[in-house]
Design brief:
By secondary structure, the chain is of the alpha+beta class. Among the domains are: 100 residues, Rossmann fold; 76 residues, ATP-grasp fold, A domain (Dna Ligase, domain 1, 2-Layer Sandwich), CATH 3.30.1490; 89 residues, D-amino Acid Aminotransferase, Chain A, domain 1. The protein contains eleven helices and 21 strands. Helix 1 packs across helix 9, helix 4 packs across helix 5 and helix 5 packs across helix 8. The longest helix is centred in the middle third of the chain and has 18 residues.
């Protein structure tokens, strides 16, 4: 990935995991800006230069060790900024920025975004409204929800993202079942290798009634600049919380959108985030907006394709410019409404065939369909899973037309899935 392509002298280190779909989009944006991009990834941990592209092999489950490797690279081949894709690399990026005194978030703030209990504690200390909550050890033999939380409640692994392992429980039996399911999930090899204390705990929160929105923004030395507010038209009531459709601009009244931004700013300040992209999830309760979580990175997967600014500028272009302190002509989103559907996993098994894609592409206002799951790949639905089948993109004069197009295209897609053979 590293390439000078008539570089303007600026170099950016891009940190991403093996599932970092946005890496190609950042590469394209860097090429247009004539910025040299070098990769730091966990694609391989054995060889010094496994991809013959100058990339740095890292282990994001060891943020300190990864940061040391990046700093050693910097001594011989300095870079001007660090950008992280996804949650795992954010702490490594923060440690590097702190060591090099580059603009960015503190490691403590990033840790709080990655640990749902720390996040709740900081918001409570700052008197930012939120649900009642408690933290239980995953090794608890007879778990019970405290009276202060009550039912219904939501159980969440502290260390996971993308709603993985998040389960609603309406009574004691459902609580016990959900707790056992999350405890089993925390034993998955990809989670055990994190070696984080957060992987040993389960957060229990009171369930908040209401719809959800997502706020995409960028922090400039403490000031939040809102890039987009996404409506989530599908209800997220549980028992699992797999997301589907994002549509922007929001159809909510202006006064409520203002409240959402204010609540997000309060949470950002409480956690201590100051610089770089953020992605916030907010639940609109009868008592007002409640921030569910904030991630110190941009929107995940390929969803950024739903955003364009000014004269066709991508989100990745904005993030690179901001990281390097380059001029940004406009943060205003394009006039057309846009949206993305993260194609949900309908059942566990093995994907054998995708049908109806050509027909789905013929739906008016559909811009693109990208199936990211490979044929013969094993599918794991939520709450244990965290990967979508792919993405559908639409643009139209109004948010309502975008939503209709996404739903119509999805109905034309058929996924042939055979049950996975049991492990003997």
């Amino acid at each position: 990935m590293a390439a000078d392509h008539q570089s303007n002298g600026k170099r950016v280190l891009l940190l991403f995991t093996t599932t970092g779909y946005q890496a190609v989009a950042f590469q394209e944006a860097a090429k247009k800006l004539r910025v040299a991009l070098v990769a730091g990834s966990d694609r391989c941990h054995v060889l010094d230069d496994p991809w013959r592209d100058g990339a740095i092999p890292l282990r994001f489950e060891d943020p300190s060790g990864s940061a040391e490797a990046v700093l050693a690279y910097h001594r011989n081949q300095p870079f001007d900024a660090v950008i992280a894709i996804g949650d795992k690399p954010t702490l490594t990026a923060a440690l590097v920025n702190e060591a090099l005194r580059l603009p960015g978030n503190s490691p403590a703030a990033v840790r709080a975004c990655r640990d749902k209990f720390q996040f709740r504690e900081l918001l409570r200390s700052a008197r930012v409204p939120g649900p009642a909550y408690c933290r239980l050890s995953a090794q608890t033999d007879c778990p019970r929800t405290p009276e202060s939380v009550g039912f219904p409640c939501v159980l969440k692994p502290l260390c996971l993202s993308a709603s993985r392992g998040v389960i609603r429980a309406n009574d004691a039996n459902e609580f016990a079942a959900a707790f056992g399911r999350i405890r089993a999930l925390l034993q998955y090899p990809d989670i055990r290798m994190m070696k984080e204390e957060a992987a040993e705990w389960i957060l229990v929160e009171s369930y908040l009634e209401g719809t959800e929105v997502a706020l995409e923004g960028i922090l400039d030395r403490g000031a939040l600049k809102v890039l987009a507010l996404f409506d989530k038209p599908d209800p997220l009531n549980g028992p699992y919380f797999e997301e589907t459709i994002y549509v922007t601009p929001s159809r909510l009244p202006e006064w409520l959108q203002t409240q959402i931004v204010t609540s997000t700013e309060q949470a950002i300040k409480a956690v201590g985030l100051v610089h770089g992209p953020i992605h916030a999830e907010v639940r609109l309760t009868p008592e007002g907006p409640r921030v569910l979580e904030i991630a110190a990175r941009s929107i995940g997967g390929l969803c950024s394709r739903a955003l364009r600014f000014g004269a066709g500028v991508t989100l990745e272009d904005l993030i690179i410019r901001h990281a390097l302190g380059l001029p940004i002509q406009s943060l205003e989103r394009e006039p057309e409404a846009s949206g993305v559907m993260m194609i949900p996993v309908p059942a566990a098994g093995v994907l054998e065939e995708v049908r109806g894609e050509a027909s789905a592409r013929q739906i008016p206002r559909i811009e693109d369909i990208v199936i990211t799951t490979k044929l013969h790949q094993k599918l794991i639905p939520w709450p244990e899973g965290s990967s979508y089948l792919g993405f559908i993109f639409a643009r139209a004069p109004s948010p309502a037309e975008v939503e209709v197009a996404l739903r119509q295209a999805h109905r034309r897609l058929q996924f042939v899935i055979t049950p996975a053979l049991p492990v003997v």
